[in-house]
Design a protein that fits this description.
With 406 residues, the protein is α+β, with helices and mostly antiparallel strands. It has 17 helices and eleven strands.
């Protein structure tokens, strides 16, 4: 076990956030598990360990199905944070079986391969329209003009959120996702609580409308969905809608801008992609590996485990470093090199095990659609200004990505 204090892992240091990958190499070289005192977590940086732990049922996204806070040696969240935790803790990402199994089974009906494939023409058309507008303007911010509106519109369309109601979705999502960073400050919690209340109230009203007048949308489907007597409670429905919106666009937005920034910094790979659009599917996978949009994923230790001779006790929290795992030289040849032709690419950017991203097929369609539209309609796309990185570590992205179209 390495002493993290002696290493370069510092998730609050802008230099580390700008490029965490050298620090990850140090962590991997120093051992398979490291206790990190500032967050009271055990960091796991190797691909094999992360991949195995994501499937290990001795770990869980919650412990409340088996223990009270006191039994588990943890403190309950402050009462003033309750709206955020009620919203967060009833979504399937933060539940374990049997509740997770029941909710995922019902929600997965909306994400069958056939259903997702039916969205492809809509996604393709919308990506083309967004890029057309970018080209007509001679350039702009790739984040706000293309990367953001595409997945937000797609998931809002799926949920049946009217176009006139969509403006607050992204700000609500950003405020809620602030709580997934390490040791979030109280101001972040206040914003997350406010967004949780407002978003929940909006969805409660929309669900009531859909109960009276069902449509073809996902909310109507969730209301009607049942299997062997199982249904979603109203809170589970609200939490599911928020989770689908947040997870359904946060990673896609960041994968898009992180990916294009990586391409601009690797002109040989961008030139290869421009010359051969058949590389797009493997490019999407490689860009998600190369600069991982979700750098860290947490699990509670429900039953004591051992990693490389180190006992991690029940009640501890494991922080699996996706970004480090995706750059593990034991799995990826020359991991620091962007290689759009990489075929053997078992990246874990979509997680693994029972919490594998249910929207991964849709995310791939969206990423490929925006990339195709930009390559076809803006072949001279270039970086116009060096972007600023968001200060966040866990959810990795840029403040914007200003581009010119020549």
């Amino acid at each position: 076990m390495g002493a993290v204090s002696d290493l370069a892992f510092d998730p609050w240091d802008p230099a580390f956030v700008a490029d965490p990958y050298p620090a990850y190499a140090e962590l991997r070289a120093a051992g398979r598990v490291h206790y990190f005192e500032p967050t009271n977590q055990w960091l796991v940086p190797h691909h094999a360990d992360v991949s195995a732990l994501l499937r290990d049922r001795r770990l869980g996204r919650t412990y409340l199905h088996r223990f009270t806070h006191e039994d588990f040696g943890r403190t309950a969240p402050p009462p003033e944070h309750e709206p955020f935790h009620t919203l967060n803790d009833h979504g399937m990402l933060d539940l374990e079986p049997p509740d997770h199994t029941r909710i995922r089974r019902l929600v997965s009906k909306a994400f069958t391969p056939r259903t997702v494939e039916q969205l492809r023409p809509y996604v393709t058309r919308l990506a083309g329209e967004l890029v057309d507008r970018l080209v007509e303007s001679g350039g702009g911010d790739l984040l706000t003009d293309v990367a953001e509106p595409l997945p937000v519109a797609v998931i809002a369309e799926m949920l049946g959120i009217p176009e006139a109601d969509r403006a607050p979705l992204r700000p609500w999502s950003a405020d809620i996702c602030g709580m997934y960073e390490l040791n979030p400050p109280e101001e972040t919690a206040r914003r997350a609580v406010r967004a949780s209340v407002e978003f929940s109230e909006y969805l409660r009203e929309l669900i009531a409308e859909r109960r009276k007048q069902p449509g073809e949308d996902l909310i109507s489907g969730l209301i009607a969905a049942y299997e062997e007597g199982d249904r979603l409670t109203e809170q589970e429905m609200i939490s599911t809608c928020v989770l689908l919106l947040n997870a359904g666009h946060e990673a896609t937005v960041n994968a898009t801008v992180n990916g294009w920034y990586a391409l601009f910094r690797n002109p040989d790979q961008l030139a290869a992609l421009r010359a051969d659009h058949s590389l797009i599917p493997s490019a999407v996978e490689e860009l998600m590996r190369y600069d991982t949009p979700l750098q860290l994923f947490e699990r509670w230790v429900l039953d004591e485990i051992e990693i490389d001779g180190t006992t991690v006790p029940r009640g501890a929290e494991i922080a699996m470093l996706f970004g480090a795992a995706n750059h593990d030289p034991e799995v990826f040849r020359e991991p620091g090199r962007l290689d759009l032709t990489r075929r053997d690419n078992p990246h874990i950017s979509f997680s693994a095990g029972i919490h594998y991203c249910i929207g991964a097929p849709l995310a791939r369609i969206e990423l490929a659609a925006s990339m195709t539209a930009l390559l076809e309609k803006a072949p001279g796309l270039r970086l116009a200004a060096e972007p600023k990185r968001k200060p966040n570590f866990v959810i990795r992205g840029l403040e914007g990505l200003t581009v010119d179209v020549r």
